Amino acid sequence: MPVSSDVTLDPKVPPGPIEDKWATHKFDMKLVAPHNKRRFTVIVVGTGLAGAAAAASLGELGYNVEVFTYNDSPRRAHSIAAQGGINAAKNYKNDGDSVYRLFYDTVKGGDFRAREANVYRLAEVSVDIIDQCVAQGVPFAREYGGLLDNRSFGGAQVSRTFYARGQTGQQLLLGAYQALARQVAAGMCRLHTRRELLDIVLKDGRAVGIVCRDLVSGAITRHSGHAVVLATGGYSNAFYLSTNAMYCNVTAAWRAHRHGALFANPCFTQIHPTCIPASDEFQSKLTLMSESLRNDGRIWVPKDPEDTRPPDEIPETDRDYYLERRYPAFGNLVPRDVASRAAKREVDTGHGVGSLGNGVYLDFGDAISRLGADTIGERYGNLFEMYERITDENPYVVPMRIYPAPHYTMGGLWVDYNLMTTVPGLYAAGEANFSDHGANRLGASALMQGLADGYFILPYTIGDYLAGQLGESTVPTDDPVFAEVETDVSDRVARFVGNGGTQSPDHYHRALGKVLWDSCGMERGREGLEKALAEIPAIRDEFRKNVRVPGTAESLNSSLEKAGRIDDFFGLAELMCRDALLREESCGGHFRVEHQTDEGEALRDDENFAHAAAWEWQGEGTEPVRHTEPLDFEHVQLTQRSYK
Amino acid sequence: MDLTLRIWRQADGDAAGAFAVYAIAGINPDMSFLEMLDILNEQILADGGEPVEFESDCREGICGTCGVVVNGIPHGPEKATATCQLHMRKFHDGDTVTVEPWRATAFPVLRDLVVDRSALDRIVEAGGFITAPTGAAPDANEIPVPKEAAEASMDAAACIGCGACVAACPNGAAQLFTAAKLAHLDLLPQGQAERFRRTEAMVDRMEDYFGSCTNHGECEEVCPKEISIDFIAMMNRDYIRAKFKNLRRLGQRKVG
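YS: structure for the whole thing
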């Protein structure tokens, strides 16, 4: 594989035993003195858990923070939709949990494709996150004695998940948003809502600012800072139908990539096993239901594909509880990738249920007879209501129907131990980076990572970079580097608006999503990926020629917003397929049909692929260059995952 | 099913708005209300027009981004349901459906069905937080919270900040929103230190933007999270107590 000479992937993992690395590093990093912090400006893009937590914490430290979100309020970011919970190695349940076990589980759950040192740090700060959130007033579930309650969550054999009903993400985001609001009131954070990043500005190789569009007036605006943090989420919406919110997009990360930030493991995407199956072709998004449902629900399909009886008339003997049968140790709690593929297998072999045959049953009958409807209602009441509202079926009486859907992306901008991308001064936090989940993320770990990055990692590591710039002012926004980027952005906007064309942006997004889901979804094969690599650029060319963006650039124009986002998804989708094609193994969420065991389980190739693949942009139409960061597993022994 | 839609169109905040009428056919009852609007927009775009601007993000009823007035009711006819979770099975073939933006002085229309709700953020910035800087927290279990308190706090914290309460209020008041934000923190032990300072600051900020409450109760009626107006009673009681307590503190400071 060709490697260009001027990129070096230095993960900057500190020396020493894994337990001491973060403490040592915190001591070794340069500090910015309190009175000097106000001389620095940090740009934070995105106000989900990672962005809001980082912005608030940096503001508290005394930095000037410019915060950007395309939503009308920071509190709308899609972190808000996370339901199940947040992991932390508190061992409040006395069931043998520890920082080391959370670390171990995360590396193993990620199918050995994450960087050990980052994961250990994540587990280490997890305990601080819970303390922080409780102090902020996050109303976590409690025991009667007033202490915190925990539950067990997909893929873990200990109870380490903290939760606030089925709205944990909402409550954690409100905590971070409130901390941010406090800094806005204090004048430390300046909030820019309805402002979308359209490009990143570099000078002498460093990130020095961003160019945005005001989504109400259409004005293009320039913003300068000493460092730029992208906390802009994941890219599941490349699939069109996903559980992501409608506005979620890859533009910030993709623009950074085009400016030299390497994009790591784009093919590592996660399909969530418990979503509501699509009801028709006009479906605009898929709705996820917390996989905590798998704690008490039992998953089954009729043994006979021809069985058309309603579920309550199918006797036990004619049901196949296929997860319990195939994985007796973990049963319905196997990791997400395993549960998702197993559901696909049932549907593909004709066992699917529902009028479109596109789901499997998740049945609470046993749990309700064992614990009573009240207890089940207390645990999952809001999820049951949500399900009934969407499907018009009552899950207390009729088993739910579920099917997997794209949900989370483990891939993202490559970052070193400091969360800095390969562009100096440009950081990526939360789902936007690639660092902690390897090839598969465990349930309740996304919230943990977003808050770890925002509250406890970036505020330290960014100081190390800023300290070296003391005395330097930000690049003025009338500098030619800003003008150049603004011209490029304005041209792009003008091209879309003046395009004429006949089809809506969504039309092309749906077409892209279908190709990507069929070729690079739950299962990937060489033939399909090669076909997709030919089809995607063709659809993109057609999109650019024939997309119709009505209205003007000088007003609120959601068609224009969509067109820009979809244009960037095309480039990313191509990279996802290329990455999937070159990773000749199966691991975690990346399942290559050519690489499986006789029993149909994922077959890793540690000899050749125990690395992160980080892609370097070479210009549109030119093949990107694949770099690798070798991954060493000193603490967690490489094993074939087994949940049997 | 086939429908006639009367939709509020307004080019921007300064322009005069008016209803436009659209016919739409072949709607699947399992479709959501917003998916129906998506289809309408595809139709408008194909006909050479400009799509109706409306907001929605998560489409799971949790982010609070969406919200339109359907047949005079914020979020439409189904109780305890945000617009994105409203389904077409709640309507009938041949219905005429009127769709408007939130109507409130504090929520100026930006375009079509999109309004500016940032005044709600201003209320939170006035004091809707607990001062707990990152890193300063004690171990989580050192702050026991009675289960009942946590549950009651969570009932209030479930507010999604959509603004339907304001849109439903004849006075354009934001009492339910503000009371929910206050109760979330004020019902917890962690929130006590700043309770009265917070209450006075947030209520006063609210008054800068919004109308006054005259106990119509329309807010609770349309709230997609069914937040109780009991929280407003708690806020009002706390506000009076806050006025006395904060005054006394002021006096103490003068003496000190």
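YS: worth flagging: The two ends of chain A are 37 Å apart (CA to CA).
IM: good catch. Also The mean pLDDT of chain A is 95.
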